[in-house]
Write a structure and sequence with these properties.
Number of domains: 2
Structural class: alpha+beta
Largest sheet: 6 strands, antiparallel
Radius of gyration: 20 Å
Shape: globular
Number of helices: 9
């Protein structure tokens, strides 16, 4: 959020206490490797330097073990340190990030439509791509209003929370979606009813080709999202999000129509380009 004042943090719903990042396919026997790589995911533009204690807490490992993980990443050229127990991303990863940007052309292809949608609605527009068990923000145009939603590029959201992530989960294959839901149920600790309600909501999203959320990720936020397809496969979700108090019933209906039409145009473009994307 980038409002004049910060809204209060929403109370977690029962389903919010489930796994932070459940994955549709989780490789077995790779827990240590997962934690090593997990260290890299803790850094961001707002957190360029992290202490070993913060990293250890983030990945759920003892400090002594985290030191070994960090030493390995430093040896590989992925981390640098200041000699006082603080770490940052090393320049090697900039080359890796550049390779990723070259490989993913979706933001480039959808850029004009995303910008136009943001200008028409006056709210923040997000382009979300499925990556493992998360929806990742790969492009955004923020609202010009002082109070607006403002996520970082690369921000990752679990697929069971938020309009766009739920759209991506809804349109996974039946097997992938069921695997995700079963993992949620296993980790819900008696909140199976919440998972059952989520399953019904996902069925409705598939039927209506649209998803909604209200204060699921950020307090006071309303969002709508629609799938973007390439050759009949859902590859992205397009979302408009903003403060609920500013977006009344008429505005919501108008925004939904606009998001649907924009997503259809982007889908047509991606399908026309085919395998070249």
């Amino acid at each position: 959020m980038a409002p004049p004042r910060k809204p209060s943090k929403p109370s977690p719903a029962p389903i919010d206490r489930l796994a932070k990042r459940p994955a549709s396919r989780q490789t077995t026997g790779a827990e240590s490797a997962r934690k090593v790589l997990g260290l890299l995911l803790q850094f961001s533009a707002k957190r360029p330097w992290l202490s070993i204690d913060a990293l250890a807490e983030a990945v759920g490992a003892p400090v002594s073990t985290t030191y070994r993980y960090a030493a390995l990443l430093k040896e590989m050229g992925f981390l640098s340190d200041d000699g006082q127990g603080r770490y940052c991303i090393a320049p090697t990863l900039l080359r890796v990030a550049a390779a990723g940007r070259e490989a993913i052309r979706y933001p480039e292809l959808a850029k004009a439509e995303v910008a136009s949608l943001a200008a028409r609605t006056g709210e923040t527009v997000l382009l979300i791509q499925p990556v493992g068990g998360n929806g990742v923000c790969i492009d955004k145009v923020e609202s010009p209003h002082a109070m607006r939603i403002a996520y970082e590029l690369g921000a990752a959201f679990p697929l069971h929370r938020g309009a766009a992530p739920k759209v991506l989960l809804a349109f996974q294959s039946d097997a992938e979606r069921e695997r995700y839901l079963q993992q949620l149920r296993a980790e819900a600790r008696g909140q199976g009813k919440a998972v059952a309600q989520l399953r019904k909501e996902l069925d409705q999203i598939r039927a209506d080709d649209v998803g909604y959320s209200s204060a699921e990720i950020t307090s006071g936020l309303w969002a709508v999202a629609v799938p973007i397809r390439q050759a009949d496969k859902v590859v992205l979700a397009l979302s408009v999000a903003g403060p609920a108090f500013r977006i009344g019933p008429r505005a919501r209906a108008s925004i939904e129509r606009d998001v649907r039409a924009t997503a259809a145009r982007i889908s047509a473009l991606l399908s026309e380009l085919g395998d070249s994307v």
